[in-house]
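seq/struct pair 1
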Amino acid sequence: MASDSPISRKDFFTVDPRRSALIVIDMQNAFVAEGAPLETPGARAMIPRLEKLIRFARERAVPVIWTQSDHRPPYGGLMLRKFPVIGEKRCLWRGDASYQMYPGMLQPEEGQGEYRIVKHKFDAFFETDLDAILRFHRVETLIVTGTATNVCCESTARSAFMRDYQVAFPSDANATFDQAMHQATLKNIDLLFGRVMTTAELLEEMAASR
């Protein structure tokens, strides 16, 4: 992304895999499957890059946290009214196919430093065990990936920064509903909440860490 701005520094931390965790947000059928109710353009195309990060994390014993959104009653709250596809068509209700992880990619391997979190709001920290998991592993940097860039991914990135976690946000391992939304989030994150880089740049930086 851009170089230092008048109000913030670009490279204010280095991503050290020994003090990092990878969060894979909502790679569920609802967002990733072809023709899905909330299909996110680019989500399937980014899977090879996301899988590179997952494999690196597994090889280096970097904690991996997978999230799934469950908005069925009574958890959905206002979402059941705001989004008819959720409230009326039961999208992202546990038990519905839309809730399941997209099968065309690596799947969670719970245990040995991998976790699955069910969340009911956009922010993966809200009323979940995410913060406890990160603190248990002494994580300093959270690598945020998944869908949708400007919704759950940005909400989680902002929440992480508010908790003093460094945020690494790979621009090509997040996807949303259109490029305008995607680019707006990248600018926000890079200026105010973390660092934006490509997957290749992130992997190179982590591989060089000593």
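seq/struct pair 2
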Amino acid sequence: MPTIAIVTGASSGLGAAFTHQLDKGAFGRLDEIWAVARHADKLEALAQSLSTPLRPFALDLTQEDACEQIAHALAQETNLTVALLINNAGFGAFGRFSSVPLEHNAAMVRLLALAPVELSYHVLPYMRADSRILNVSSAAAFMPQPRLSVYSAAKRFILDFSRALDAELGSVGIHVTAVCPRFMQTAFLDHTLDSAEAMRMARLTGFEKPERVAAKALRAARLGRALCIPSPYMRTLYAATKILPYPIALSLEQAVMGRSSS
């Protein structure tokens, strides 16, 4: 019975870090890794760097039929087990809500929120009692973020969806982990609207290494933990958001965002 992992946004950054660590056995033996990303050439280069067979899916998950193509590929297999689904693909937009094109925000919501829901639905029938879903949320999900409103809301959705789904599936031995990293020095910042502002804000909170985030997230998933916050600083911030009244927390957030755009 072949056992696979599926990774979206696999060709660079955190997704590539996940894929390389899976190749090294971070989640046990895998017969194949299914890697999803937009660029076929990057997937081909990734495959050449691995010892585990990689099946590339050059798909844009903002397109309505993309997840269906993965579902169709699963249906063609016999006795396939999905040990791990990693919903990682994403991009962002910094700036005032009114300044971001509507189509950009709509695509972001589809990629960050709807695509993980669709893929989880399609993949669950192929999972076993010890399978895992790992959803990449963000420290931006901890509270509403001015000038990052749609992104933070979409990441909050995936955080809450993950925790609810974990509670539903725990009785059958399947666990869902949401990982909430802070900024990482990856191509993500280059692909955001107003990437200069994104970089300024990232420097305020500091960067995490994708390899470290991937290692901590995979360990949390193996242990069946519902939440993984890799950064001690962000764990403190998360605790603070549970204590401070929302208006005070929002004022502090706006002060930080104001510094980032000065």
